[in-house]
Amino acid sequence: MDIDYRVAFDLAPVGLILSRNRVIVDCNRHVCEMFGASRELLIAASFQVLYPSAIEFERTGSRIAPILNRSGTYADDRIMKRANGETFWCHVTGRTLNQSTPHEAGIWSFEDLSSRRPVKAELTAREREVAAHLMDGLTSKEIGKALTISHRTVEIYRARLMRKYKASNTGDLVHRLLAGD
Question: Is residue 166 a part of any domain in this protein?
Answer without folding.
Answer: yes
